[in-house]
Write the structure tokens for this entry.
Amino acid sequence: MSRAEIADGVRGGRTPSPLWTLGLLRSELTTTFRRWRTLALLGVLAAVPVLVGIAVKIETSDGSSVHGGGGEGPAFITQITNNGLFLVFTALAATLPFFLPMAVGVVAGDAVAGEANAGTLRYLLVAPAGRTRLLLTKYATTMAFCLAATLVVAVSALAVGALLFPVGDLTTISGTRIGFAEGLGRALLIALVVAASLIGVAALGLFVSTLTNSGIAAMATTVGLLITVQILDQIPQLDALHPYFFSHYWLSFADLMREPVYWDEVTKNLGLQALYAVVFGSAAWARFTTKDITA
């Protein structure tokens, strides 16, 4: 279903059906993933593993070693030369603090405000539950972008890692050996957890998008809030508040590379993201359903 067909449905007064809703979702997905801005964001994300892999290859080609510490997050980089699969974990750790949430913030911030700025928002609203359906569709599209962006990073890293470094059985953070197939399964699980870690940012961006008719303002505000929260998460004096910041448990996915897997902080992260999704999703719904739509 195209935007023109949706507009015709509005003018014709047709009641929305499940097929109409699926058509709207398909239209939103197509529109979002065909935008040059979206393709550029995915291109930048795909380039990060390439740059990391080449940098590690150059640094180790002369016999020097790559330094890291602690066995968590970016410290996966110390294992890349032994097994290219670790480039997947390193790339996700490198992009999660800023690049991935920034990309999601741009898409979420433009979701509603961009339509209002373009003058197409009112044509997408169909009674009796047009606003709720549209908002849910926008959020579903943003979550689809979360998954797509994460998989782009993971697949790019896997391809580059296999091309530049040996692959095979790998050693977990706990020091035990697991097979390559299980390692791929862990990589997929980590990618899914990273994608789920972004649903809080997606809900926050969607809420901000309902507050303004300027897509640029909504995107800038969302990215600004993202940066601010991560700065606050590094201030020791705010230690009591850190567990409530949506970014606090992001790198907990490293625990999925332990044997046995540590689920405590991963579960806390997913629960916190769900809480943010409920709170800011509800706020976005309350704002959008009472907003005076003139564009």
